[in-house]
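Here is one chain, start to finish.
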Amino acid sequence: MSRIDDVLAAARSRLRRLEAGEVPAALERGALLVDIRPAAQRAAEGEVDGALLIERNVLEWRADPTSDARLPQAKDDDVEWVVLCSEGYTSSLAAAALQDLGLHRATDVVGGYHALKAASLV
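Its structure:
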């Protein structure tokens, strides 16, 4: 197993990851769906209506409620952040990074955008 596989497994062990079919219920309860895919990837694959667009390189600054660069949605540590990437790998690492900031409700979507599309949710 590679080192990044180990890091990914450790990150995922801390998450309660959402299946694509669980995303609508999460949004109904007030979770924020955050699309971290780069603009070129979103253009090629498709957009997700209602998702916050926060590219990966600034995610922690935008989600941290103590950061001067936070988004208005980053009100406190109790916000439920549901991170979305293309296939559910980078999003796991990103969600774990948000948990490292104290955002313990952060998670991601198993299979990412492709899983949402396969489930006809986008």
